[in-house]
Amino acid sequence: MPKRLTITIPHDLGAAEVRRRIDLHMDWALRRLEAEKIQVEAEDWFGNRRAFAGRGYGQKASVAIQVADDALQIEALVPWMAGMFAPVIEAVGRHYAGRLLSNEGAS
């Protein structure tokens, strides 16, 4: 049974700026995942929501991000086996999302 992970990261940037930063660093993120043999398909923005589907190591996962004026919410549905590593996955997600929202960006 898949495991749902949710990460909420508060910010004071406004939704438009967060979307701009996500778009700015999307190529970097996709190249990094590709280097790890993870294929990702990204959907276009639908309002302030964007969905992704990924496949790697014989497993599938889906991720949706929701941008609000004061928070970025990331929701992932991962295979049950990956769910055993939920704390690590959440920590990595917080790290990279935090970098994205900071002045240093994802580079």
Topology (SSEs and partners):
Elements: E1 3-10, H1 15-35, E2 38-42, E3 49-56, E4 59-67, E5 71-78, H2 80-83, H3 86-101
Antiparallel strand pairs: 1-5, 2-3, 3-4, 4-5
Number of helices: 3
Low-confidence segments, given as residue ranges, are none
Q: Supply Rg.
A: 13 Å
Q: What's the average pLDDT?
A: 88
Strand order of the largest sheet: 1-5-4-3-2
How many strand elements?
5
Largest sheet: 5 strands, antiparallel
Structural class: alpha+beta
In what range is the share of β-strand residues? Answer: 35-45%
Order of helices and strands: EHEEEEHH
What shape does the CA trace take?
globular
Pick out its properties.
about 110 residues; alpha+beta; 5-stranded antiparallel beta sheet; 5 strands; about 40% helix; about 35% strand; globular
Q: In a few lines, what is going on in this structure?
A:
The protein has 107 residues and is of the alpha+beta class. It has three helices and five strands, in the order E-H-E-E-E-E-H-H. The radius of gyration is 13 Å and the shape is globular.
